[in-house]
Every structure is written in C-alpha cells, then in structure tokens.
Here is the input.
Amino acid sequence: MRDGFFELIDFGEKFLSKHGVKMARFETMILAEKTLNMQRLEFFTNSEILLDRNKKKKILKRLFKRTEGRPISKICGKKEFFSNEFFVSDNVLDPRPESEIVVEVIKKITDNYLNKNLRILDLGTGSGCLLISLFLELKNFYVRGIGIDISESALKIAKKNLKKFDLTKELLLKKSDWFSNVHGKFDIILSNPPYIETSDISKLQREVRDYDPYISLNGGVDGLRAYREISLRVKRFLNKDGILCFEIGKGQYDLINKIFYKNGFKLIYKEKDLQGIDRVVVYKLN
Ligand SMILES: C[S@@+](CC[C@H](N)C(=O)[O-])C[C@H]1O[C@@H](n2cnc3c(N)ncnc32)[C@H](O)[C@@H]1O
Here is the structure.
C-alpha cells in the first residue's frame, strides 16, 4: 500500500528535525530505504510499496534511535565505502569518505609496478574496508593480505566482511598490537590509525564521539602516538622497495614527516582531501 508511506516520511521528517537532525527528510528516506531494502527510485515509481505494521514499527524504532544521535550506518549495520557496502557495528570505526583516498593513492602508485605479487599489511583494519577495497581494486595483481587489529570485536566485523566478499582465502585477519603478532615482509603497509588528540575527543560531533569506538579515535596526547609506535618498528616488516601509506589528521603533516624522516623514511607522495587538507602520505625507506 502506498497509502501511509509518505505520511510516515512526513512524520519522520518532523520528528528528526525536532530533535536537531539536519536533512531530516533525506535521512528518513534513507532509513526507510534501508529498512525496506529498496532503491530510492522505487518509492516514486512503485505504487505497491508494502508497508505492513511490522515494517512501519521497524522504521519508527530506527527513527527513534536516530534522534539519540546514532548514525544511520550504526542503526542499519551497514556503510558504503568505495562503492561497496560493508558491515559495521559499534565496535568499528565507520568507514569515512576521506579514507577512500588511501585506496586511490595505493592504486595510483602500484599502477606501474612490474612485480605483480603483492603482500599487503593493514594495521588497525577495523571493518576491513581498506584491505578489502584494495584487494578488489588491484585486479591486475596477485594480492595476499593481512589485516590486524587490537580489538577482537572489530576483527569479528572484519571477518563478516571478508565472508561477504568471499575473500577468506586471500586475506587473513589477526589480533595484534601493531606488530606484536605480525611475521614476514610486505610490499605495502597501510594504516588509518587513531589520530585524534585525546583532549579533542569530547569535542567531536556525537555521532562520532558516542558511536565510534574510543580506541579507534584516540591518538594520545598529541594524536601522533600510533605513528610514532609504528615508525619505530615497521622497518623489518617492509620489503626493500615497499611502501608505507597512512591516513593522517588535519595539521599533522609536518609532524608526521619528521617522525618518519627520523626513522629512516622519505616521503614519496602525498594527497589532499576535498577540503584541501593533507590527508594521505606515502613513505619509502631512505
Ligand atoms: C581509525 S580506525 C581505522 C579502521 C579502518 N582501517 C578504517 O579505515 O575504517 C583505527 C583502528 O586501529 C585499531 N587499533 C588501535 N590501536 C591499535 C593497536 N595498538 N594495534 C592494532 N590496532 C589498533 C582500532 O581498534 C581501530 O580499528
């Protein structure tokens, strides 16, 4: 029944905006779309949308969760990254659009690689979105990869995603405190580590502060703890011509360069995000 559907959308719009959600109609549509497993166009072209009591109830419940600040991705358990949908939960960082630059940069750099066998290590894999997207994008390569994380609950979500993309043979997951449980050498080591200064976490918008795991945000007093720890130990895990690729936070570019130069690396590439912020850096052994 089409009847009732747009009333529900109208209600959702009012309800969400009353609770301070911007773009309330748009968000209501997305919640409905995801709950009913439908594409937007279908709402407008299909006069037979079935909206039984249970579905209505489910949408209303989800609208209520949204008013508490929970992001849509965490309500529905799914988030788009690099044109694919990944499972997410409260135990993993929501994949961010700016992290897609990490995948784009690595793709660009490896474009003219002659060696077609690539071993990849993803430090702090979270949902596994970077490692999986890279695997799917590096189609001309024979890729084998490992994603590590200190959080077991994050690894459970990453495992779910590996299964979804049927990559459980090609990509491995391990619990590890950075390199504590990593063996062997890699051609590409990448990471989007926690890089928010501890004192800034409370100032983040509530969707992030309250629903992304603290461990995925907290970069220590100056936000650079993970870069320091990784830079000190990474050398022996990198092949001679291997690259290190990191996502970095606003204003961290110079400081992170210093850390890596001091530990024997040279910058070979950097990329800004859409706001002009230095967002991704790539290093090689000096
Ligand atoms: C910013 S999140 C990135 C998640 C994912 N790679 C992404 O880009 O969406 C950082 C990840 O690092 C993990 N992490 C934090 N400290 C760690 C450590 N000492 N060793 C391994 N992983 C760690 C967190 O659990 C979290 O999953």
Summary: The chain has a mean pLDDT of 94. The radius of gyration is 21 Å. Residues 5-68 form a domain with the Helicase, Ruva Protein; domain 3 fold (CATH 1.10.8).
